[in-house]
Amino acid sequence: MTDRTTLAHLEVPVDAGAIPIWRQIIRLAWPVLLQQSLIFSVGLWDRFLAGNNTPSDESLHVAFQAAQTNAAYMIWFLSSYSYFVSIGSTALVARFVGARDFTMARRATSQAMVLAIALGIFGSVAGLLLVGPFIRLLGVPGPAADIAVQFLRPLFTLLVFQVLEAAGIACLVGAGDTRTGLMITTCVAVMNMPLSWCLLHGYGPFPELGITGIAYGTACSYLIGGTMVTIILLRGRAGLRLRPAQMLPDFRLIYRILRISVPAALDSMSVLAGQFWFLSLVNDLGDEAITAHGVALQWEALGYLSANAFGISAMSLVGRSLGARQPVLAARSGWRALLIGGGFVCFMGLVFFTLAPQMFRLVCPYEHQLPVVEMGIPVLRLVAFATPGLSCCIILTAALRGAGDTRWPVLFTWIGFLCVRIPLAYLLTGQHTLLDGRFVIHGWNVGLFGAWLAMFADLYVRGSFFLFRFARGRWKATKV
User: Can you give the three-state secondary structure of 168-211, one letter per residue?
Assistant: First the structure.
């Protein structure tokens, strides 16, 4: 029987220097692009279910959608939480594979899964204890707060499987295998959509859980994904294989994973801290603005996730090129990924601008949702012009992470949010009272559009920083 862990089974060979870089980028990116499209489809399906399912009390409809917006930010947080293991796993496995040290690549994979279990359990317990107080801290208005908490509890309960799925796929990406992640995500999406529908409406043997049924469907699909990636790695794939004997904690390898992952996760958490602060300002604008914000973000994810697909290909190629001691090839891979991926994301911006009314009407079809549509169309069209800055932020961040250069992005994030996005959002969205009425910022009352103008400026400031950092090339000497 053929050993599945041999070098021949790599999706993109380590010594693929004869293959043009653009072809390697596309070969790595297209499965991830499809994978991200499935992730987007699941999120959009959840939005569609909530937006097209009118509750008995019509006044609660927009409140349901506002709760979903706040819950979506927490789901984003859960994805970013997995960065504590996934970023370091990709970078370290890529270096070992680039150096053809498959023994160490397998050991790193085993330790990544051990770390994922520990982080998943810790995050689950902490999330279940703190989700209620945190939602209230965000200032979510009225019944939307209680709905958001109910929506999030199932996701925290099964968080360990989401982190396992992310860690296993990250290791495979480091080895050059992006197709397995696509297969797993396809199965997750295929299970998620009917589960959410059945649990929302109470179809067949499934109970009717209302909007929380959407979350239960998502949580169960993560259980399936985490189980699948564990079984695949136990059997062996792309040169990697889990061995029970190697799953005793090796604190030296865990430290190497965390040394890369922690700054990257802190960078992502810093983004999220700024995003939560930003969301609290949007929450002051009322349920309709919150819903319009969430729907626009859901569609904007088409650009974000597309950039992320090319970022993952850049991360894998940069890491393996440096492992093979080819820093020039690493730099060329990053720039080509930005060129190809950035062009694709800018095309998505054209779609946003052209089809914004139809996009909003798909998830807000009723007349009482018309104010949401009217608020949302201008902000979705605005983000179309932010796609170049968005591309630089995401693709070059990933390229730097592939090199293990994860500290500078944290500083860029702090500057972007603390010096640009948040101050501008305060200035543009309206009047804000701080420190128990002792300090008032008199804004320009531009509303939700003002908040998105602040986000627009932040993306271009941070994108410029990432361009400068990557162009200087000091990341080539980073040790992992």
Answer: HHHHHHHCCCCHHHHHHHHHHHHHHHHHHHHHHHCCCCCCCCCC
The answer to the question of residue 102 being in a domain is yes
| Helix axes 287-323 and 159-174, enclosed angle (nearest 10) | 40
User: Which residues constitute the domain of residue 176?
Assistant: 12-477
Residues contacting residue 383 through CB under 8 Å, at least 6 positions apart: 296, 300, 303, 349, 352, 390, 452, 455, 456
The region of weakest confidence among 109-113, 243-247, 341-345 is: 243-247
Query: C-alpha distances in angstroms, 75 versus 70, 138, 153, 367?
Result: 9, 15, 11, 29
**At 397, which helix (H) or strand (E)?**
helix 387-402
Residue partners of 356: CB distance under 8 A and separation at least 6: 299, 376, 377, 380, 381
Q: Name the residue among 244, 230, 242 with its Cα closest to residue 105.
A: 242
Q: Which amino acid belongs to residue 224?
A: I
- Position 352 in a domain: yes
Burial class for 204, CB neighbours closer than 10 Å (0-12, 13-18, 19+): exposed
Look at residue 3 and tell me if it is in a domain.
no
Q: Strand, coil or helix: what is 343?
A: helix
Q: Please name the amino acid found at residue 434.
A: L
Nearest Cα neighbor of 255 from 99, 115, 79 is: 115
Radius of gyration of the CA atoms of the chain, in A: 22
Q: Is 240 helix (H, G, I), strand (E, B) or coil?
A: strand
Q: Are 16 and 297 in contact (CB under 8 A)?
A: no
Residue 129 amino acid letter: L
**Average pLDDT score, the chain:** 83
For the chain, give percent helix, strand, coil, nearest 5: 80, 0, 20
Q: What is the DSSP letter of 12?
A: S
- The single residue listed with the structure tokens 């694709």 is 344
Number of domains in the chain: 1
The CB-side HSE value for 32 (13 A sphere, CA atoms) comes to 29
Q: Mean pLDDT lowest for which of 142-151, 329-338, 377-386, 391-400?
A: 142-151
159-209 confidence digits (pLDDT tens): 999 999 999 999 998 888 878 888 888 888 888 888 888 887 787 788 888
CA distances from 60 to 67, 89, 178, 384 (A): 10, 43, 42, 31
Domain annotation covers residue 2: no
Whole-model pTM: value is 0.69
466 vs 416: CA distance, rounded Å: 11
- C-alpha 325 chain-centroid distance: 30
